[in-house]
Amino acid sequence: MTERYSALALARHAATGAPWPRVWRKAEPKPTYDVIVIGGGGHGLATAYYLAANHGVTKVAVIERGYIGSGNVGRNTTLVRSNYQMDGNTQFFEYSLKLWEGLSHALNYNVMLSQRGQIVLAHGPSQLDVLSRKGNIMRLNGIDAELLDRADIMRLLPYLDYSAGTRFPIHGGLLQRRAGTARHDAVAWGYARAADRLGVDIVEHCEVTGFISVGNRITGVRTSRGDIHAERTAISVAGHSSHIAAMAGLRLPIESHLLQAFVTEPIKPFVDHVISFGAELFYISQSDKGGLVFGGHIDGFNSYTQRGQFPKIQAVAECAVALIPSMSRLRLLRHWAGIQDMTPDGSPFIGRTPRDNLYFNGGWCYQGFKATPATGWCFAHTIARGEEHALVRHLALDRFERGNGHDEYGLGQWTYRQ
């Protein structure tokens, strides 16, 4: 039965001072599981949930070094969309968006999906041509897309700078109305609660320190809370993928970079869409609290600090004020950084590894949060059945060895910087 709380019930609870019940159990690790999922972020929790919900695999442990929500799932800017143009990615992210649209109902937990629409701006005629091509690809795949001219943009976004001397002249854009945002914390909590109720153990504050193996077969993990054995083990640790994989003898073509994000003081609503453009891979939306949430490109050096650097703060702030001059009067409330696993072609790896019974999901670059439902769905399928789901076969770990890179990032750079 759905749990509902009235204002009177909340007031009564506050008056009694009784502690709120836990949303999921504080599980102690068992000696043996069918599946261990390393990483309690959005992808790991979604994988565990779909293993139980779709495949009946409930003897599952999610091993998290910190607490649920302490990693990238709580350090992103919550955008969800499916405006991709490479075959394979187009279908995958559209499937993810469809799962987003039913996620609150599936989890019986409000993930606060807000399909406010995303507009990608074009700064010149060539960019508008490229966005037209992307829109046509989307529509051929049954995905909503609308090409907007300058007048359309001025009507929808009257607060942008349209002056003759603006730094980023606006020639039009591409609108996906079904895109938007979701509440990142709610997504983590919703998946955690739903997985827990299906019997999954969520083990927090448990750091993986190594793997247990017999020959080429991975049979479990060594942790700060003892050895845990399993038939199958899955790595899903955004930001530290290469470190964990190295413990299993895998050397991955992944670099880790900072991606900074920012939020202003709260103001009255006026940014009704998600807006992005490619000069700095800039994006902006307005949160339910009223703060303007925005960000740009990764910092250009490897780091695991989760601390931003001033040159990127300056570059992103300049983009924000150039696009929306009224933002110059706002105070910056806070900023933070997440750790991005960056691959050579900007696309992730998901599937089996050269080690028997070891599965890997990582290297999501800029795309991790929006891919959460579909990644969990497809990764759970791969683990349960021992073969990659059809939607992620193009993202196999050996694709560079086969000369089959999937350069969505490179295509995106060409799109935005021409």
Describe this structure in words.
This protein has 418 residues and is an alpha/beta fold. The chain has two domains: 24-82 and 85-109 and 184-253 and 345-406, FAD/NAD(P)-binding domain (3-Layer(bba) Sandwich), CATH 3.50.50; 118-180 and 256-343, D-Amino Acid Oxidase, subunit A, domain 2 (D-Amino Acid Oxidase, Chain A, domain 2), CATH 3.30.9. Helix content is 30%, strand content 24%. The protein is built from eleven helices and 18 strands. It has helices spanning 7-16, 42-55, 89-101, 103-107, 125-140, 150-156, 184-197, 241-247, 310-323, 372-385, 408-417, and strands spanning 32-38, 60-63, 79-80, 118-122, 146-149, 172-176, 180-181, 201-203, 208-214, 217-223, 226-235, 255-264, 274-277, 282-286, 292-295, 332-342, 349-352, 358-362. Strands 1, 2, 8, 9, 10, 11, 17 and 18 form an eight-stranded mixed β-sheet that branches. It has an eight-stranded mixed β-sheet with strand order 5-6-4-13-14-15-12-16. A hairpin with a 4-residue loop joins strand 13 (274-277) and strand 14. Helix 2 runs parallel beside helix 7 (184-197). The chain is globular, with a radius of gyration of 22 Å. Mean pLDDT is 91; it is low at 413-418.
Please report the distance between the alpha carbons of the first and last residues. Answer: 54 Å
Looking at CATH, which topology of the largest domain would you report?
A: FAD/NAD(P)-binding domain
Q: How many individual β-strands? A: 18
Oligomer: single chain
How would you name the CATH homologous superfamily of the largest domain? FAD/NAD(P)-binding domain
User: Structural class of the helix and strand makeup?
Assistant: alpha/beta
Radius of gyration: 22 Å
Counted up, domains total 2
Mean pLDDT: 91
CATH class of the largest domain: Alpha Beta
pLDDT under 50 segments (min length 5)?
A: 413-418
Approximate shape: globular
How would a crystallographer describe the biggest sheet?
8 strands, mixed
User: In what range is the share of β-strand residues?
Assistant: 15-25%
Known CATH architecture of the largest domain: 3-Layer(bba) Sandwich
Listing every helix as H and every strand as E from the N terminus to the C terminus, the arrangement reads HEHEEHHEHEHEEHEEEEHEEEEHEEEHH
Question: Residue share in helices?
Answer: 25-40%
What's the helix count?
Answer: 11
